[in-house]
């Protein structure tokens, strides 16, 4: 079993929830009821919080202690970038605390959600392609 297998499995689950959330982003449906979207947002934020905590507690520190300077630098860059992304995601969740908040401005919720979900998808693809293979080798 590779060091990053669990992280990769978490990516699959997070991206599945993101896809389900994206499927709810229909303005007319959100204007009528934001409950399904808010429920999926909560589940996504919960899974993502656990995933990020595990990376912060285990993966990044281990890689940053590597004797290989390139590995340590790569890990530090990914950790720093994720800090900014995590803050954006947390703010997104706070701006949409209830189904009624979503219902009140479905167009804005859709735009913000699509933007955040794109950022999240791109980040996870980069981790799978750039960071995790390095982590599995060291």
Describe what this molecule looks like in 3D.
The protein is built from six helices and no strands. The chain has one domain. The model has no long low-confidence stretch (mean pLDDT 97). The radius of gyration is 17 Å and the shape is elongated. Helix 1 (5-23) runs antiparallel to helix 6 (106-137). The longest helix is centred in the last third of the chain and has 32 residues, at 106-137. It has helices spanning 5-23, 27-32, 35-64, 69-95, 99-104, 106-137. 87% of the residues lie in helices and 0% in strands. The chain is mainly α and 138 residues long.
Write the layout of secondary structure elements.
Elements: H1 5-23, H2 27-32, H3 35-64, H4 69-95, H5 99-104, H6 106-137
Q: Which key terms come to mind for this protein?
A:
138 residues; mainly alpha
The domain tally reads: 1
Report the count of strand segments: 0
Tally of separate helices: 6
Mean of residue pLDDT values: 97
How far do the termini sit from each other?
Answer: 14 Å
- So what's the overall shape? elongated
β-strand amount:
under 5%
Which residues sit in consecutive blocks of at least 5 with pLDDT less than 50? none
What is the string of SSEs from the N terminus onward? Answer: HHHHHH
The Rg value, from CA coordinates, equals: 17 Å
Q: Helix/strand/pairing class, anyone? A: mainly alpha
């Amino acid at each position: 079993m590779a060091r990053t297998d669990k992280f990769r499995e978490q990516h699959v689950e997070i991206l599945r929830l993101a896809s389900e959330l994206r499927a709810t982003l229909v303005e007319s449906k959100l204007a009528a009821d934001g409950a399904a979207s808010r429920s999926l947002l909560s589940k996504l934020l919960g899974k993502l919080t656990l995933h990020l905590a595990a990376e912060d507690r285990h993966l990044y520190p281990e890689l940053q202690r590597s004797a290989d300077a390139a590995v340590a630098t790569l890990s530090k860059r990914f950790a720093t970038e994720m800090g900014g992304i995590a803050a954006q995601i947390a703010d997104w969740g706070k701006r949409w605390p209830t189904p009624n908040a979503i219902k009140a401005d479905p167009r804005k919720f859709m735009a913000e959600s699509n933007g955040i979900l794109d950022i999240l998808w791109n980040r996870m693809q980069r981790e799978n392609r750039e960071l995790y293979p390095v982590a599995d080798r060291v």
